[in-house]
Write a structure and sequence with these properties.
The chain is of the alpha/beta class. It contains 5 helices and 7 strands, in the order βααβαβββαββα. The strands form 2 sheets. Strands 1-2-6-7 form a 4-stranded mixed β-sheet, with helices on both faces. The chain has a 3-stranded antiparallel β-sheet with strand order 3-4-5. The radius of gyration is 21 Å and the shape is globular.
Length: about 190
């Protein structure tokens, strides 16, 4: 498949480690693409999950996907909560249109780790079972949630990151100096 790239533009590709590996392979054989991609950023990955995980969670928590008005696996901070809002209550015809409205949404919330961790060994795509790169070693930068205290209490989005190219390290240091971002070094022991 031919990838069309706007002339004169350069890109950073952000993906999970297998996406980054695929981009590296494609860039190795496509000079035009290689000239346009200036960075590959990998998001930490603990394996993908099939859609059966969602179906399982919905079934055992009484969530009807047909009535969902909102759904997120991880909302409200680092790791956060699975949040599902279902239309409930009385169905009322909207006088201005032919659509129907529900007077009330029922909200279901559950800590991400309480529903996800017991299921983490199930519903994994076959290819993910063979993965050896959960931390994006082929990326110029890899990043993701930091699952240690005090960072787990974060509600904004603190991430850990590993920078493998001097260009990106210098750019991050410049952003820090400009006050655009905050960078703190974490000890190797931590």
């Amino acid at each position: 498949q031919d990838i069309k790239i706007a002339s004169g533009k350069r890109y950073v590709v952000v993906g999970i480690p297998c996406h980054i590996e695929g981009m590296r392979k494609l860039m190795a054989i496509d000079k035009k693409l290689r000239e346009k991609i200036i960075g590959l950023f990998a998001i930490y990955c603990s394996s993908g999950r099939t859609f059966y995980l969602t179906e399982h969670v919905f079934k055992y928590r009484g969530i009807n996907k047909e009535k969902l008005s909102y759904f997120a696996y991880r909302d409200e901070g680092c790791l956060g909560y699975m949040v599902a809002k279902q239309r409930r209550g009385i169905r009322v015809a909207d006088s201005d249109s032919e659509t129907s409205l529900y007077k009330k949404d029922e909200v279901y919330k559950e800590r991400y780790q309480s529903y996800y961790h017991p299921l983490r060994s199930f519903f994994i795509p076959r290819r993910c079972l063979f993965c050896i790169d959960h931390y994006g070693e082929l990326g110029d930068i890899c990043f993701g949630d930091i699952h240690i205290e005090p960072y787990m209490q974060d509600k904004v989005g603190v991430n850990s990151l590993i920078v493998r190219k001097r260009y990106w390290k210098d750019l991050l240091e410049q952003c820090k100096a400009d006050g655009t971002i905050t960078l703190d070094e974490i000890s190797v022991e931590t």
